[in-house]
Fold:
Amino acid sequence: MSQSPLARAVALAALGSCLTLPSLAQAEFIKDSKASLELRNFYMNRDFRNSAPDKQSKAEEWAQGAILKVESGFTEGTVGFGLDAYAGTGLKLSSDDDRAGTGLLPNAYLNEGPGSYGEATVAVKAKLSNTVLKVGGLMPKLPIVSSGDSRLLPTVFDGAMITSQEIAGLSLNAGQLRQVNFRNSTDRQDLSTTNFAKGISDRYNFGGGTYLFNSGNTKAGLWYGELQDVYDQKMYNLIHNQAVGDWKLGANLAYFDSSENGRQLAGKIDNSLTSLILSAGIGAHTFRLGYQDNSGDSRFPFLAETDPSIANYVQILDFTRVDQQSWQARYDVNFATYGVPGLTAFVRYITGDGFDLADGSDGKEWERDLDVTYTIQEGTFKNLALRWRNAMVRSNALGEWDENRLIVSYTLPLL
Structure:
């Protein structure tokens, strides 16, 4: 895509502002650089149906975000060096004390917070052969730890990560995360654990990898993650895809084994979780069935504001209560087959039971999600995307929630 001189100048200026050594400005460093600016307009309404008079009845906010990402190439030589930069800003368009707390803005119920906020980070990287080391701001997308991006701005970690692909089909990753800038925060904090209020630490160590075999149809993964002094976790993953006639079949099986670690800051942790997703696609249609079994004496631990690689982690619920079993049915359709390219949609239903409530009674809950996205394919507004996400939750543990998210985003390539 041809870029205007102004757009190219903006991207190069953002990249150049990170440079400290003139010698870095070599041919490959600039030629292989890429940059993009995403504008994200986000409206969110979460209705807490039948809430008590002294509790929040609704969270509703509207905000505008801007996300700039710049990735350089590598300098020439045996070891190449480069820089990646990220900057994000959020602007409050509508909120008040009684409606705050959607996660879009740095606020909470009864405190609507500031009118704007921002964050920025830089990562230095080095490449030797097919191995890359990054130190600084990271947004990992790995089975054991995957940075979340479900609100106005993404979650960003500080740390180091090495990725090696020296052997065909084998990808290895290892690293350490030290702090996190949450999606609606302006500062960096220690790492915390979802499902365990006291699970806070300043070190998350991870490692593992995946291997492709069977002509690339099958991928096996083995991973380890440790939130120091809180929990450690082993993950085993097997993914298979197979064409059978006109059908595309798939299976994704994962097993997690988690326990307490070191000083056990969150207490005893004893958890095993099995996750399975089966899929079958033909033409415009894809059908999925999911199953998740959470067993042991505690809930499933994972880093806050990350997306765990489990079947039933969905828009609102994650179905990881103690002894909870859950099932999912999902249907996707791509309307390009019917003459409307850029229009996609899915609907899913998840139900879970088998867990106990505080009073000893049987717990049950379900969630239904509807997601529709349309991306303009050509013309002046090419890449403009409109998305509606609707969810309903009915739970005798959480209550009754209805939620709508309306997202308009536009990504402009700068380099």
